[in-house]
Amino acid sequence: LQIWLLLAELYLSLKQIPSAAACLQEATNIYPLSHHIMYTRGLVHEQKCEFAEAKQCFHNAVSINPLHIKSLQHLGLMYHYLGNQRMAEKTLRDAARIDPHSPQTWFNLGKVLESLGDYSRASDCMATALQVETINPILPYSTIPITFE
């Protein structure tokens, strides 16, 4: 399942949407009710600028796993793109409560607050994003292999 989803995200980063959709279909055949599948399906719709469909996919992912930060981040962005700034703010604040060390969450929250005209809190969020980014490792420590001599 994970390899298909990783391939789908790779194809999305290369703007190869049909290949990403094919990988997503393979993952769906394995485990259709995964929040990771809903999240990746949302990414496909987001890439195609189908924001309402993407919002629904991210919402489904959060319904399955309310603690999935990436789904919450993208759900907040979809609310922002669709003009529902208050829901965007609420969703991103929820994400920040769950993981206060996510610079992307703070940055997106800053963008939403800026669009609401709350420049003081927006700049605070942007500053927090910069501070948090400097203390986060480039790669999660769990991906670094442990060697014994």
Automatic annotation (TrEMBL):
Instruction: Look up keyword Acetylation and say if it applies.
Output: no
Q: Which residues form the signal peptide?
A: 1-22
This protein's record includes keyword Signal: yes
Describe where the TPR repeats fall, as residue ranges on this chain. Answer: 35-68, 69-102, 103-136
Q: Which UniProt keywords apply?
A: Repeat, Signal, TPR repeat
- InterPro entries cross-referenced by the UniProt entry: Endocytosis_PI4K-reg_protein, TPR-like_helical_dom_sf, TPR_2, TPR_rpt
Q: Which GO terms describe its biological process?
A: phosphatidylinositol phosphate biosynthetic process; protein localization to plasma membrane
SMART domains per UniProt: TPR
An annotated GO cellular component? plasma membrane
This protein's superkingdom? Eukaryota
UniProt family annotation: Belongs to the YPP1 family.
Q: What does this protein do?
A: Involved in endocytosis.
- Protein name listed in UniProt: Tetratricopeptide repeat protein 7b
Q: Which organism is it from?
A: Triatoma infestans (Assassin bug)
> What is this organism's lineage?
Eukaryota, Metazoa, Ecdysozoa, Arthropoda, Hexapoda
